[in-house]
Here is the input.
Amino acid sequence: MNVLLSGASGLVGSHLLELLVANPQISHIIIASRRSLPSHPKVTCIVAPELSDALNQVSTPVDLVFCCLGTTRHDAGSAEAFFSVDHDLVLLTGKTGLRLGAEKMLVVSAMGANPRSRIFYNRTKGLAEFALIEQAWPVLVITRPSMLLGERPKKRWAETLSAPFFKCLPGSLRAINATDVARALMFNALSDNQPSVVVRDSAQLSQDAKRYTV
Here is the structure.
């Protein structure tokens, strides 16, 4: 089974890449990236200064597409740059997967995603989800984790300060480990008989993570 992955250097994407490499059902992983990643016999990394260029260079047919792209307005530098990553490049990942013959896409969105939200972050995530649905995937799995827990190369202090609060929240509001999101992505990627659009919140993702076995 061939896989296309964007966002492999991020918090969820890096854990997902480890799981993909370890899973015997996955034969080839194509990564589109703006920088090189550690090499592995199962991995082909296509690198370009702009992620859009890297995605456009992918030509190997794939079965699955994972999109783990995500940033913040602060890290991106502007609202426009944030929208370019969390909306435009997410859609281009989907478009690329369809071009390469994939029939299932899995995307990391966010709790609160809503195309009509007054909050720019949530609205961007919601618009991206809506546009992916419009791409008419045979199967589209949208994951909406709450706050992600895990070690980032660059700390996000707002998340660090609010993490203890989110750890105490109930159900789908509770913070979730990035490793669990990655395991849930794998579980849903390899599950059959799914509806055309699947939406999983944090509580459901935690359950999915426990059900993933190699």
Notes: The beta strands are 2-6, 28-33, 43-47, 64-67, 104-108, 139-144, 148-149, 176-177, 197-201. The two ends are 15 Å apart (CA to CA).
